[in-house]
Specification:
With 293 residues, this protein is mainly alpha-helical. It is 66% helix and 5% strand. Strands 3-5-4 form a three-stranded mixed β-sheet. Strands 1-2 form a two-stranded antiparallel ribbon.
């Protein structure tokens, strides 16, 4: 039976094609994405000064939509790279099977979301003053919520297609060692997030946090044999942070139900590691058929 990593061999796999494919993906993320940001921001009433945007002049919702543009444009870049540069079906980036299965996506979302809730219940028990209910923001929260539920999954799926899909299948042509592939993927996942305010606030532990997240999503993808679980998990994480408990030091500026006043990088790192381990152990006991390595 063909594996998730075997899908890369269904298309053209020369080094030059991967270089071109990577350039196309990041061109769409950073160049096309920036152009779309400019257009969207202008549509929302942002002012322009000597060719630069003053996005502080637009509403919080418009700012949120603008920040989502680059990652969403990345989906187009990944599609072009897979379909036309590597000349293989786009679905092979997600699964080795004929059809994409939505059940593991919803399972990954639901179970991971539950684990995040439980971790913050524990955090509240340890330090109640650190989590504050935003009762005055309910109307704004409800106004934002449809946009969060639509745009965040597009943003997170774009990252999954790029990192756990394109990058990992590509590096899988060099080695089939799951630990090595997952570690490489974790480091690659850190790089575009290194400018995030969470990194500035948390320092080296925040950097390790992103590596752990990338490593864990990659390892679960390799063990399950599809990208479906990771797509659900990543969407759950970002929707939870955007809509439920929003750290003050976060790139996602949205009116969540609760605000986490301060982030303890050590606690966050330990928590995400424990959550990933619990998710992995429970998942492959509950649904052993998802472990197709």
């Amino acid at each position: 039976m063909e594996t998730f990593l075997d899908q890369a061999r269904k298309g053209k796999t020369s080094l030059i094609r991967y270089i071109i494919g990577i350039l196309i993906i990041y061109f769409f993320i950073y160049i096309v994405g920036a152009a779309v940001q400019f257009i969207v921001a202008m549509a929302f009433g942002s002012s322009v000064n000597l060719g630069t945007l003053n996005i502080s002049s637009i509403t919080p919702l418009a700012y949120f939509v603008v920040t989502m543009c680059p990652a969403i444009c990345g989906i187009i870049g990944v599609f072009i790279s897979i379909r036309y540069v590597h000349q293989r079906p786009f679905s092979t980036l997600i699964t080795p099977f004929k059809n994409i299965n939505v059940k593991p996506i919803f399972y990954g979302f639901g179970f991971f979301f539950l684990l995040l809730v439980l971790s913050d219940v524990l955090l509240y028990g340890l330090n109640p003053s650190n989590i504050q209910f935003n009762g005055n923001n309910i109307s704004q929260f409800l106004y934002f919520l449809p946009f969060i539920l639509v745009l965040i999954p597009l943003q997170t799926t774009s990252e999954e297609l790029t990192y756990r899909g394109y990058w990992m299948q590509g590096t899988g042509l060099l080695t089939r060692n799951f630990l090595v592939l997952a570690l490489i993927n974790g480091i690659l996942f850190l790089l575009p997030h290194i400018v995030n305010p969470e990194i500035s606030a948390g320092g080296i532990l925040a950097m390790v946090y992103y590596v752990v997240v990338g490593f864990s999503l990659a390892f679960i993808t390799l063990k399950s044999g599809t990208l479906e679980l990771a797509i659900g998990m990543h969407a759950a994480n970002n929707i939870y942070e955007s809509a439920i408990i929003h750290p003050q030091a976060s790139i996602l500026q949205t009116p969540s139900l609760f605000t986490q006043a301060a982030i303890d990088p050590a606690y966050e790192l330990i928590t995400i590691a424990v959550i990933m381990i619990i998710f992995y152990l429970v998942t492959f006991q509950v649904k052993p058929e998802w472990k197709r390595c």
